[in-house]
Prior knowledge:
The structure holds two protein chains of two kinds. Chain A is α+β, with helices and mostly antiparallel strands. Chain A is 38% helix and 25% strand. Chain A is built from three helices and seven strands, in the order H-E-E-E-E-E-H-E-E-H. The N and C termini of chain A lie far apart (68 Å). The relative contact order of chain A is 0.13. Chain B is mainly α. Chain B has a domain at 2-143. A two-stranded antiparallel sheet of chain B has the order 1-2. In chain B, helix 1 (2-12) runs parallel beside helix 7 (127-157) and helix 4 (71-93) crosses helix 5. The two termini of chain B are 27 Å apart. The relative contact order of chain B is 0.18. Chain A binds chain B through residues 3, 6-7, 10-11, 14-15, 18, 21-22, 25-26, 29-30, 32-33, 36, 110, 112, 114-117, 125, and chain B through 36, 62, 65-67, 69-70, 73-74, 77-78, 80-81, 84-85, 88-89, 91-93, 95, 99, 102, 156-157, 172, 174, 177-178.
Amino acid sequence: MNTSAKMILVLTVISALSGGLLSYWDSFTSEKIEAYRQSEIQKAVQKVLPESDERKEIQQNGFTFYIGYKNGEITGISFVAEGGGFQDIISMMVGVTPDFSHITGLAILSQKETPGLGTKIDYDPSREGMETWFTDQFKGKKTGNLTYVKNQKPRSDSEIEAITGATISSNAVVTILNEKISAAKAAFESINE
Amino acid sequence: MAKKVSLLEDFTKGIWKENPILIALLGLCPTLAVTTSVENGIAMGLAVSFTLVCSSTIISLLRNIIPKQVRIASFIVIIATFVTIADRFLAAFYPEISKNLGPFIPLIIVNCIILGRQEAFASKNNVGRSILDACGMGLGFTLILIVLSTIRELLGSGTIMGFKIMWDSFSPWMVMILPPGAFLTLGLMIGASNWINDRRKRS
């Protein structure tokens, strides 16, 4: 057999075997990976819509809305908001009141901020007992025009306290929220039209 | 007898004499990037070792079948297959670790240690010796990651494997879990290993 034919044959066989092995492997890992992703989302929805006991999922304009109900009444709406952070995309679950006017909760789904500084948006080990203070402070804040303040307590219900040493990450969260909440509101209102 | 010694050496050379990180200075990118905690270091070390041992086994078995013109392409396909298996395994069973390591698991595909061992060893030697070589190199890599990440986690977060070790008033050296800490620690470790080798040679 000449060299070219042998090269093609060997590479083809190796690649085919590799593809076969991987699709077999995928068949029993993909379910688990998807289940984990779903459970993370459900946990986040539970955190940002604490009052709801029943949920419904609706897709609209690229948003997936998780609507929380209690005794048949809507208590809140949550969705995933994503945007650029300091180094990579920050993905968050946001919960808002049914009229989108106030935030009911915020949870970070994934982020790759600077370890020890920007990662405090998710978990701050230096504040024992309130490690998630950064996301917790968004609860009850007014949407639309959120801003941050540095090294002082927020004075109004549209201000939050930035993380010292991680202003860019703090600012990214605020910017993403301002942008995505209004986009989500528009998308949500177009459902009933 | 002579053969026995050389088999043992196939295994042990990766741990010290030809250590992939300290001596060959290969695979430094994941070494520097993921060693912010011991857990990450161990996971990365094991993922690389797994890929290395599996790839070396297969490539050593196929060494007389793969035409040399397409050997690099074939090696990469084989390596990528095992890396993907490791990646999906971590994502399915250890999702937290998988999240922490992020893109560095898929990047094992282009890790020089693995391709380097295939070129330098597995494609020229029999399966038994290739497996020993891969195990030694994998172990050498993992041990260095554990030492490096222990130093960084202890000084940078005051913990080891998430358990608090340092006293209460200890304030963590933030720099240790940032990139400069990785360079400083690794530099000192390489310096120390050169110093030890130097002294050994002289005596």
